[in-house]
């Protein structure tokens, strides 16, 4: 096993199993008649042996999905935030001017976008618990660390580069051809352009997480809406108290943008274009993706001593 770099799990309920439990990558201890020695040496403890099935098939499946998306979503949303700043450096010459006001870099990860992904990583479910227990072959979906593979990671990065390109260049091209989109027929200046990009970034990253989720609970939807509204309210308040003499001042900038119908129409266009790759993958990509996995075709369920066990028939039907 060491030559194959296999990940092993050991299950034991007595003192004679301690060495095996400690040697394995993951040790599972059962509270047996021989005492709690195995439990104290294990990574996870269970009162009964049949609890292991739910721990692996249900909670193990969910935890892996949640953890993988949690890690890669943080990379994604920061790529979406920072890449427009890189694009901006090619447009503003040698100036060190930032595209966003400084407060954005402080609060983006800590307050603006933190809550939705935390709720996702705590409660996301791609299948119900009963479905996972009755269909053990679903455990094969995430075999070989598929969600943490380089291919899946680069898919998140490419998605981030696509979204950052959309949220930056569509407003840039639009304003280059017609800078007058405000309700009072005044042209946009630089900080207004930065707020336009930031406003669209918040919508895009939240909608992408919503589309990626398979468990649209009331809590999750509420947190997404509250997160978006918190950003808008915070920036609106900051818009009224921003120091006008500062080079990063957004005094009355965001409020003027929110009152412009053209600004909201531009936001709608950006959201639609940004989700095109996700829609295409859902329609065409998953068919090819699932062909990589050969799932068992039949599952036979039988009862033994009032306990339900599952036997997977790997033969093709």
TrEMBL record:
Residues 39-289 form the P-type ATPase C-terminal domain. SUPFAM superfamilies: Calcium ATPase, transmembrane domain M, HAD-like. GO terms for molecular function: ATP binding; ATP hydrolysis activity; ATPase-coupled intramembrane lipid transporter activity; metal ion binding. Its main location: membrane. Pfam families: PhoLip_ATPase_C. GO terms for cellular component: endoplasmic reticulum; plasma membrane. It comes from the Eukaryota. It is a multi-pass membrane protein. It is found in: Membrane. Keywords: Magnesium, Membrane, Metal-binding, Transmembrane, Transmembrane helix. One of its GO terms (biological process) is phospholipid translocation. The chain crosses the membrane at residues 103-123, 152-170, 190-211, 218-241, 261-284. NCBIfam families: ATPase_P-type (TIGR01494). This is P-type ATPase C-terminal domain-containing protein. It comes from Clastoptera arizonana (Arizona spittle bug).
